[in-house]
Structure formats: structure tokens, C-alpha cells
Write a structure and sequence with these properties.
heterodimer; A: 115 residues; B: 114 residues; mainly beta; six-stranded mixed sheet
């Protein structure tokens, strides 16, 4: 069964350091999403790609966060410098170009802890 | 301003009984509503969805009801099983020709006791 892959699963870093997360969506899925889930909250969209283009990055803190999907397949999310408040679960999701119910398929996530 | 609200942080039910999880929304432009289930240290997994033009969708033990006039939906699980214990997220989307982001509620933690 096709799945969204993410790595690493867990990351511990000190504040002011740089961190990067990787996501490989389900093969053929044109749309890729990065969400952040703070403990006790629901996931919130950070950035959405359609192929290699950014569709929505209105909630991405662009002073420290960046995301790319250069070839329209896998994607990297970077934080530099990391702050204590960035501790959260970072979830990647993908969906096909057309979806009957707007379903998104989520990866296992990367749990980030900033010390 | 939260567009999707799940006002019950937790729910506890006995095995075999019905679980009812509730969700309210404010944006009348949402056209699909989805329920996701999440276990600790895993990503959310899709459970069931409903289009805004319907008022009920059923899949096995899971049924979702939509009341558009009240901007309210609910997920019914019958009968509840211990394996259903997880956090359930209500999500909504507004189709905008390719920008179908999901807006999530805060989740309800369901515990099914044997």
C-alpha cells in the first residue's frame, strides 16, 4: 500500500540551530502539504505545493521557515534558526490532482523538540 | 478565529455502546467534511467524509451526520470497540480549484473501555 514517507521521525535540537525535514509523497500525487501540530491542537497548514509551485504559504513564518519541492516530487521543510516555540509534530500530506472528497494522505510525522 | 470547533476534549464510553463525537463550523463555504483518526506518534488516518450536499454518510460502524442549517456534524461509532480509542479530528475544506487545504478542529480523545 502506498504511503507518505517522512524522515526523521524524531529530532531534538537546541534553539538557534538549523533543522530540516524530508517528505516523499505517494507516487503520482500532485499536491503536497506541510502541517504543524502543536500538542493539544489540530494540524495547521504551513505550506501547500501543486507540483513544484507554492499554492499557499500564508501561514509559513518566512523569516525562519522555508520549503521547497524542486522537482515536484519530494519536499524539504527547513527551520533556521529553531526557537523553543517550534517544538511540535510536523506532518506531511499528499493528495492526487483531483480528489472526490478532498481527502489527504498523511505521513507519520516528525516530532521536533527544541531545547 | 476557529472555523472548526470540537468542544469536547475527551469522551469515554463502554465497549459495545455508541460513541458520538461532535463538530461545529462557522464557514458556510466548506463543501467537504472529513473525520480523521490519530494514534500517538502516528499521522492522522482518514476515516469517513461527507459532502455538504448530503446529510448522512455511512461506512460500516461509522456514520457521519451533517446539519447544514446548524453548521454541525457528528460522527457515530456503533458498536464502539477498544481499538477505536484514539484522537478524532474533524476537518473541513473549501474547494477552490486546487487549493483544498484542510481546516482541523482541536480533536476529541475517545477512550473505549472494555
Amino acid at each position: 500500500e502506498a504511503e507518505v514517507a517522512q524522515s526523521p521521525r524524531y529530532k531534538i535540537t537546541e534553539k538557534s540551530q538549523a533543522v530540516a525535514f524530508w517528505c516523499d509523497p505517494i507516487s503520482g500525487h500532485a499536491t503536497l502539504y506541510w502541517y504543524r501540530q502543536i500538542l493539544g491542537q489540530g494540524p495547521e497548514l504551513l505550506v501547500q505545493f501543486q507540483d513544484e509551485s507554492v499554492v499557499d504559504d500564508s501561514q509559513l513564518p518566512k523569516d525562519r521557515f522555508s520549503a521547497e519541492r524542486l522537482k515536484g516530487v519530494d519536499s524539504t521543510l527547513k527551520i533556521q534558526p529553531a526557537e523553543l516555540g517550534d517544538s511540535a509534530m510536523y506532518l506531511c500530506a499528499s493528495s492526487p490532482r483531483t480528489s472526490g472528497n478532498n481527502e489527504q494522505f498523511f505521513g507519520p510525522g516528525t516530532r521536533l523538540t527544541v531545547l | 478565529d476557529q472555523q472548526v470547533k470540537q468542544n469536547s476534549p475527551s469522551l469515554s464510553v463502554q465497549e459495545g455502546r455508541i460513541s458520538i463525537l461532535n463538530c461545529d463550523y462557522t464557514n458556510s463555504m466548506f463543501d467537504y467534511f472529513l473525520w480523521y483518526k490519530k494514534y500517538p506518534a502516528e499521522g492522522p488516518t482518514f476515516l469517513i467524509s461527507i459532502s455538504s450536499i448530503k446529510d448522512k454518510n455511512e461506512d460500516g460502524r461509522f456514520t457521519v451526520f451533517l446539519n447544514k442549517s446548524a453548521k454541525h456534524l457528528s460522527l457515530h461509532i456503533v458498536p464502539s470497540q477498544p481499538g477505536d480509542s484514539a484522537v478524532y479530528f474533524c476537518a473541513a475544506s473549501e474547494s477552490q480549484g486546487g487549493s483544498e487545504k484542510l481546516v482541523f478542529g482541536k480533536g476529541t480523545k475517545l477512550t473505549v473501555n472494555p
